[in-house]
Amino acid sequence: MTESARFTADEERALRTAVQQGERPDCPRCGVPMTQRPIGGGSFGLGYHRQREWLLCPQCRRSAIFDVRRGTRL
Q1: Would residue 3 count as lying in a domain?
Q2: Dihedral of alpha carbons 68, 11, 63, 31, sign
Q3: How far, in Å, CA of 22 to CA of 9, rounded?
Q4: pLDDT in tens, 52-65
Q5: Share of the chain residues as helix, strand and coil, in percent rounded to the nearest 5
Q6: CA gap 19, 72 in Å, rounded
Q7: Domain count of the chain?
Q8: Are the C-beta atoms of residues 17 and 72 closer than 8 Å to each other?
Q9: Which strands, in side-by-side order, build the sheet including 72-73?
Q10: What is the pLDDT of residue 53?
Q11: Which residues fall within 8 angstroms of residue 10, CB to CB, at 6 or more apart?
């Protein structure tokens, strides 16, 4: 059986929690610090500007994207 290229729901939840608490998350699979990249989106004028976070593991190349305010996966 091969290992999944995606993080599990529990792993993604732990990553979101770490970011929301102001911590720099470590990859749940590799244990190395993940690279954080903010992603903008939406429109200020239309009232739905999003603040998203993209977490990338420099070692295993897995990533997760979520909405910072809601804490939901995209």
Answers
A1: no
A2: positive
A3: 20
A4: 889 999 999 999 98
A5: 15, 30, 55
A6: 12
A7: 1
A8: no
A9: 35-41, 50-56, 63-67, 72-73
A10: 85
A11: none
d(CA 62, CA 27): 8
Domain containing residue 14 = 9-73
Tokens of 35: 């690279």
pLDDT digits (tens, 9 = 90+) for 30-44: 999 999 988 876 555
The rounded distance, in Å, linking the Cα atoms of 54 and 35 is: 8
Structure tokens at 10: 């529990």
pLDDT tens-digit series, residues 12-23: 999 988 988 889
Residue with token string 């939901």: 72
Let me know if residue 4 belongs to a domain.
no
Six-digit token pair at 37? 């990249």
Cβ count within 10 A of residue 65: 14
Please give the DSSP secondary-structure letter assigned to residue 6. Answer: S
